[in-house]
Amino acid sequence: MSWLRIMTVVRRHWYVLWRSPNRWFDIAVWPVFDVLLFGSLGAFVAQENEASRAAAPYLLAGIMLFHVLFQCQIAVTTGFMEETWSRNLLNIMTTPITELEYTAGLAVYAFMKLVMAMATISVVALVTYQFHLDSIGWGLVPIVGVLLMVGWAVSLLVIGLILRFGQSAEILAWGVNFVMLAVSGVFNPVSALPGWVQPLAKVLPTTYAFRAMRDLLDGKAIPWDDVIAGYVGSIVFCALGYWFIVRMLSTFRARGYVTRFS
Amino acid sequence: MGAVLDARGLRKRFKDVQAVEGVDLTVHAGERVGLLGPNGAGKTTTLLMLLGAITPDEGEIEIMGHRLPKGRSKAMEEVGFVAGYLPLPDRLRVREALGVFAGFYGLNRAQAADAIERGLSRFRVAKLADRMCMELSSGQRTLVGIVKASLHQPRLLVLDEPTASLDPDVAMRVRAGLLDICANEGTALLVTSHNMLEVERMCERVVFIAGGRIVADGTPDDVASMFGHGDLESVFLQLAGNDMDLDEP
Fold this sequence. Notes:
heterodimer, B: Rossmann fold, four-stranded antiparallel β-sheet
């Protein structure tokens, strides 16, 4: 592994981010409207029913932590897609950079974007709804770790599908987030989901992360069983994501799909 | 002269098409080799296999002692690649894009800056350094692409149609720059082209491919006389004609 090559990937994508106003929407615009949407929903529910005063923090913390998953996944995936859009894939494949170094570079870049997006979200939630994430406490840190890992794992899956099926699979880069949002119990316990969805929810490590978050919001101690289940699941997801992308890359090379992007 | 590239028994099939059928190719240090053949002959597939971008069905590839695919990363430290049809990352300035590729080749900031200045001067495109890559003409893009491919002073430069659709004066600059690299850095060249005159001027050895097989290998004069012609253009036309005959029902 070459740290120089990893940081070169970060630099390459930083240039693109800096020159592309549309890319700033992911970190400076959509998060604002997500906070406004779910914050307002929570405020409305709280006004209607005194017993539902906890709704606003549940919704706000849910959407804020969902953005950890979303930002991480979308930054890695669109980073890779930038190479296909600019027909740069063959240029990169003919340099010494390895797949692992390239992916690690995208993961570092995604983390930087995540920090910027979380700053935006935190400021908007604080100013608009007087909600701040640190009210949940340090227990949030291991939960964020689970979501980061799942975000990376999902991005590997999506990139693998793009390698295999070409640009028609790009829609999944955004669509998969709605699946995770709906099925992971971001705002609600798994028991509130339809019965046939619940087994799927229980397989996702994100479900345990969001459940742990709600326990923390309720003032309980860190639910280590959920956190550990989340980490075990995310390690499995990352391993599956890596296995999948290696398989797809092998198919990509065997079938000469690089010509699709050059 | 030692071999920088040694490929043995390369075969590649895409569904019903046998794109490459048993290609053996060795390129020695400092050698300038033209890989020629009509459209669909298997030139680009061969190049992409040599670069590790396509996996051969059969065969072995070794670059400077590094066996592909396992040693791909080490092998690519010795190779530079440029294709006339490939753009550079469009939202980067030329200097930034070259800096990124220098990083991929393992050059630190100072080494990269030196290599970029040297390359831009060699091809007389220093004035393009602060231009956006997307604003470059095809000729400028090719020149900058060759600068990119030669930043790390590779032992082998692989060029796929580098002068396709270029004006004669730009094509001449490309040739002069490449010959300068070969003469001063001992770099070997493996170049595909449809411009036979250019290949005769630039390469000391030509390899003709047709139907995925090597049908001739030697100096331009030897290959031309092998087919009973006076120049490569006539050889090319003969092979292209044979291919068209094969396509007819």
